[in-house]
Amino acid sequence: MGLTTVMPVQAQWDRIHTSTAISGVLGVLNESIESAERKKAMEIKAQEKAQYEQTFKDAMTEAKDFEQNEKWEDALEKYEEAAKLNCKYGYTDQRQITRKINGLYVKAGREDDGPGVLNNAKTILPDYSGYRYMRENPVYVNKKETSTKIVRVACSDKETRLEMETEGIYANDAGRIKGATYIKGNKGGKLTLVGVENITLAPAWTYIPWPYQKLRFVLIFPPLPDNATEFDLIEPSSSWQFKDIKCK
Questions:
Q1: pLDDT digits over 138-190, tens only?
Q2: What is the per-residue pLDDT across 165-178, written as a single tens digit (0 to 9) for each?
Q3: Cβ-based neighbours of 75, under 8 Å, separated by 6 or more
């Protein structure tokens, strides 16, 4: 939606200048109120940050103690408690806590907890010899979707397999794929999604618990023609517009 600017002629200004002046005063007053509200909210946030800082420090200390004593489940619980506070108030670099949490998932025996970051390894096949073409980190064009990338393309006579990776930006970030997502090669027509791994189809969501965690997932499509050398991946009505993906 564009902005339209109307320049009143002098006669119009003479007729409406009083109401315009009043509107201007009210606008300044509203801005002053909003500014005061923002300032108050910032003060409250600062007070809360100071209030919970010791709780955060205690959780981190306890987590490290549990980790040293190889009490993995307890350590994970405390790191996640600290992560919740850190995501809200920003006491330290969240990447450090996320790395600890990721490392403890396996040690605590949580690696099979449903689709999500815990099942990333299951999206990598032990053998790709059944595919006629396989390319890791293929070249493609996407100027909008910076948090998601294609890590592998594999083409066979039965399917086109796209292994992808996306990184969480916020706590409890979430992703899903529309069933109408499709690929279209430089040879052949449109091929609509037929399967997914480690991610859900809309309207359901797959959640990424913490910022900087990476979710790996797979999109499966019908086979591209053997003479196709590149293709586009399109999710309708979204920023998913991966173009010119090289498959040979």
A1: 999 886 777 899 999 999 999 999 999 999 999 999 999 999 999 999 998 99
A2: 999 999 999 999 99
A3: 63, 64, 66, 67, 104, 108
Q: Are residues 95 and 128 in the same domain?
A: no
User: Of 84, 107, 130, at which residue does a domain stop?
Assistant: 107
pLDDT in tens, 46-59: 899 999 999 999 99
What Cα–Cα distance (Å) separates residue 78 from each residue in 53, 66, 71, 151, 152?
14, 9, 11, 33, 35
Residue 225 and residue 91: Cα distance in Å, rounded?
Answer: 53
Asked whether residue 13 carries a pLDDT value surpassing 80, the answer given is no
b (16+ CB within 10 A) / e for 170-186: ebebebbbeeebbbbbe
Are residues 190 and 100 part of one domain?
Answer: no
**Which residue has 């606008």 as its token pair?**
27
* pTM for the model: 0.79
CA distance 56 to 53: 5
Structural domain of 38: 10-107
Q: Looking at the predicted structure, is the pLDDT value of residue 128 above 80?
A: yes
CATH number, domain of 129, equals 2.60.40
